[in-house]
Amino acid sequence: METLIPTSYFIDLEHEHGAHDYHPLPVVLERGEGVYLWDVEGKKYYDFLSAYSAVNQGHCHPRIVHALKEQASKLTLTSRAFHNNKLGRYMEYVTSYFGFDRLLPSNTGAEAVEAAIKITRKWGYVKKGIPENKAEIIVCSQNFHGRTSTIISFSSDPGSKNHFGPHAQGFITIPYNDIEALESILETHPHIAGFLVEPIQGEAGVYTPDDDFIRRAKALCEEYKVLLMADEIQTGIGRTGALLAVCGNCSCAGHCEQQKETYTRPDVLILGKAISGGTYPVSAVLCDAEVMEVLQPGQHGSTFGGNPMACTVAMEALEVIREEHLTQNARRLGKIFRAKMQAYIDSSSVVLMVRGRGLLNAIVINDTEESDTAWNICMKLKENGLLAKPTHGNIIRFAPPLVMTESQLLECISIITSTLKTFESK
Ligand SMILES: *Cc1c(COP(=O)(O)O)cnc(C)c1O
To answer: Domains in the chain and their CATH numbers?
Structure first.
């Protein structure tokens, strides 16, 4: 038998040789399959984070892994100096899947947000006639759009922002879910190019806006000739029980009748995370030709963006979402999750509320932002075989892979509620 290397060995190595830019739960994972993860000591867990919703299709999905292996032994990278035989097919597939004309390929979420900002600003100058260097983009407080120096410039989290200045100009912050604030900025500022928004604020603690917030925002954007930029990096691809969170209650991105009422079509759609099922960094910006055409050769680029591995893996990952009905599953299980959690909360003094959509949910712990109660609950959940992480101090996000079954979910709910019970009346 192999001698077991203790968890602390791996943690100490990271601590000694790595940048201290994260504060992970003390668990060292070495294997994953579907909704499960195993640590280096052989302990099995339910994954309730899904790598921040990147692993919607479940860990090491056999179809996605197969596609990745096949492509890896054939061709991995050409750069965009030449064409490859996957990129065009991928672009056709994804634009038709989400109902847009054009796709810009990139690797990480933050890169796609950056590209969306550049496209929107340029559209503002070229198509809207905003004077050079005057374009502004409206963003929401408590947003999370990534970690680049431009993106953190409009973060409201001091930890993300302080001492990383000078910060980028050209962003105006309004409160989330505040349609009046949006309207008053649009009224008073003639040089707005875009409104960048998360349909649900995941990192902030799964803040779920009013049902009509995005729809009304879109109407205002149209009125003032401003692009609605939806960051669906975390909320997209089935997670919220809809293909996109902007879809409302339906799952086919503007492709069906039922959806006409609830679907709000953004002008710029930003995707990442689950577009590859968590096997490879893939992100994208989608928009119509009228907007995308502002980019000309030489004005944007990425060495790895649109590489044949990324294209192959992402097409397979999106097929899995559709063929395994994961969006519908997320919607159905999400309702069960919130109903059962609410039943618990009704007589709980530890948990204040549950909120979310589909399988993107959070519970708010009855304690201050600075308290360590949520962290301690997550440590106890880990002991009991379930991995979750606090988002903002007293909020715990619950986002399992969408391949979960109902009986697995019920087992998880019982782990969660029995763990919470040990924190009651303390
Ligand atoms: C994760 C995330 C990003 C950033 O993606 P990275 O791949 O980490 O750069 C941007 N926006 C949202 C909403 C996210 O959840």
So the answer is: 7-57+326-421 (3.90.1150.10), 63-323 (3.40.640.10)
